[in-house]
Amino acid sequence: MAFILFGVDSSSKFQISKHMKSYRKELWFNTSRRRELINITSEIQREIDSSGIKEGLVLVNAMHITASVFINDDESGLHQDFEKWLEGLAPEKPYSQYKHNTYEDNADAHLKRTVMGREVVVALTEGKLDFGPWERIFYGEFDGMRRKGVLIKIIGE
After folding, report:
1. Residue 134 CB partners (closer than 8 Å, separation 6+)
2. DSSP character string of 17-86
3. Ramachandran class of 60: left when φ > 0, alpha when ψ lies in -120 to 50, beta otherwise
4. Distance between CA 32 and CA 82 in Å, rounded?
5. How many other C-beta atoms are found inside a 10 Å radius of the C-beta of residue 125?
6. Spatial distance between the Cα atoms of 7 and 141, rounded to a whole number of angstroms
7. DSSP 101
8. pLDDT 10s digit of each residue in the chain, 157 long?
9. How far is the first Cα of the chain from the last one, in angstroms, to the nearest whole number?
10. 56-62/148-156 β-pairing
11. Residues 6+ apart with CB under 8 A from 47
12. Burial class, 60, CB count within 10 angstroms (exposed 0-12 / middle 13-18 / buried 19+)
């Protein structure tokens, strides 16, 4: 098998391995409020440590259509800005404004999840999340007070 690499500088590493491993874990949440942002970075790192995988990728995704996983800064003012901005984009009430709310009252949560995203994929280098200085992984709950899960899938070596 031949590979042609374009734009690779001397600091780049390219390696093919037949020793790829995978690791799967679910985290479960039951929030006390309808909407909540939870920093789950330390839980993700704990699972990376448990996996024994040092180089690869980490996928973290919400397993429910009214929850989100995203990366941003862990700063309370920013979290308040998210709440205000998302509520402006997709206000919870009046429930009657949404066609989806015939049998449910969570159309706004579906829309908020769409904006904030379903998952993140992060590089794993030397057993650590390969982040910028302020990046953290968050679970965003938009229709809480019931049990919902997040999938962690780690692949690499």
Report:
1. 73, 74
2. -S--EEEEEEEEE--SSSSEEEE-HHHHHHHHHHHT--SEEEEEEESSTTEEEEEE---HHHHHHHHHHH
3. beta
4. 18
5. 13
6. 41
7. G
8. 454 445 555 555 555 567 899 999 999 999 999 999 999 999 999 999 999 999 999 999 999 999 999 999 999 999 999 999 999 999 999 999 999 999 999 999 999 999 999 999 999 999 999 999 999 999 999 999 999 999 999 999 9
9. 21
10. antiparallel
11. 23, 25, 152, 154
12. buried
Q: In the beta sheet, which residues pair with residue 61?
A: 119, 151
Measured CA to CA in angstroms, residue 87 lies from 35, 63, 68, 91, 107 at distances of 10, 22, 15, 4, 12
Domains of the chain: 29-156 (2.60.120.460)
Structure tokens at 89: 């984009």
Tokens 């998302």: give the residue.
86
b (16+ CB within 10 A) / e for 6-38:
eeeeeeeeeeeeeeeeebebebebebeebbbbe
Indicate the SS3 state at residue 9. coil
Q: Tell me which amino acid residue 104 is.
A: E
